[in-house]
């Protein structure tokens, strides 16, 4: 009996560490795409073979949180999370949408997102009117934004900034709970940059 328990725990650890893991949505930063209390599945295989694509909703670890995972206590928590015996830390594991890719320039002007000077059509996002300066996405990093633009601490703000690819945990692909919102269509037929443009080009200052 003990042997079966050990095997089950090891199997759970392998699955959650390398294949798929459930995450709880604790905030409203991704409304309307994700609601507070949603539970999503995040798969970890895709990004072993390719880099994230624009429009994908991903889980990543907050830069600078490495110390929280270090030491005996941090390693123990990571192990318990891998077994499903502890919830992921909402201050470390964040979920946002990929907006800017490595080498691109992102700017927000009066609520409209421009990538390399072309407007990004965003029917899924909550509207806002604020402007943010241009950001050149460094090589090996991503520019992330929450869909609820007025209530999301994301790459627009220096407190978070752009996200190194090494911090990416995986791609959110299923809303598992509540059942009334369950879906595998999380990327919502995301359009490419410049398609259905809000305007032809980024307005000049």
Describe it for me?
The model is unreliable at 193-199 (pLDDT under 50). A 7-stranded antiparallel beta sheet has the order 1-2-11-3-4-9-10. The protein contains 4 helices and 11 strands, in the order αββαβααββββββββ. With 205 residues, the chain is an alpha+beta fold. The chain has a single domain (28-181), classed as Umud Fragment, subunit A. A hairpin with a 2-residue loop joins β6 (112-115) and β7. It has helices spanning 2-19, 46-49, 66-69, 71-83; strands at residues 20-24, 39-43, 57-61, 93-100, 105-109, 112-115, 118-119, 132-136, 141-145, 163-164, 168-177.
What are the defining features of this structure?
alpha+beta; seven-stranded antiparallel β-sheet; 11 strands; Umud Fragment, subunit A; 205 residues
What is the quaternary state of this protein? single chain
Give me the side-by-side strand order of the main sheet.
1-2-11-3-4-9-10
Q: List the domain count as a whole number.
A: 1
Helix content: 10-25%
Describe the biggest sheet? 7 strands, antiparallel
Helix and strand element order: HEEHEHHEEEEEEEE
Distinct helical segment count: 4
Any chance you could write out the topology, listing elements then pairs?
Elements: H1 2-19, E1 20-24, E2 39-43, H2 46-49, E3 57-61, H3 66-69, H4 71-83, E4 93-100, E5 105-109, E6 112-115, E7 118-119, E8 132-136, E9 141-145, E10 163-164, E11 168-177
Antiparallel strand pairs: 1-2, 2-11, 3-4, 3-11, 4-9, 5-6, 5-8, 6-7, 9-10
Helix pairs in contact: 1-4
């Amino acid at each position: 009996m003990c042997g079966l328990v050990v095997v089950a725990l090891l199997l759970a650890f392998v699955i959650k560490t390398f294949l798929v893991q459930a995450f709880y949505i604790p905030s409203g930063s991704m409304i309307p795409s994700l609601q507070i209390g949603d539970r999503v599945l995040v798969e970890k295989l895709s990004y072993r073979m390719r880099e994230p694509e624009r429009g994908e909703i991903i889980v990543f670890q907050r830069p600078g949180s490495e110390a929280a995972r270090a030491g005996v206590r941090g390693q123990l928590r990571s192990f318990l999370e891998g077994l499903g015996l502890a919830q992921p830390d909402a201050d470390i594991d964040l979920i946002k949408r990929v907006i800017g890719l490595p080498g691109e320039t992102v700017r927000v002007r009066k609520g409209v997102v421009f990538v390399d000077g072309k407007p990004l059509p965003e029917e899924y996002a909550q509207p806002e009117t604020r402007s943010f300066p241009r950001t050149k996405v460094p090589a090996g990093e991503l520019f992330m934004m929450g869909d609820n633009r007025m209530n999301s601490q994301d790459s627009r703000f220096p407190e978070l900034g752009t996200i190194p690819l090494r911090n990416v945990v995986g791609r959110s692909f299923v809303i598992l709970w509540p059942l009334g919102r369950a879906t595998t269509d999380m990327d919502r037929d995301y359009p490419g940059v410049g398609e259905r443009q809000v305007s032809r080009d980024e307005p000049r200052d």
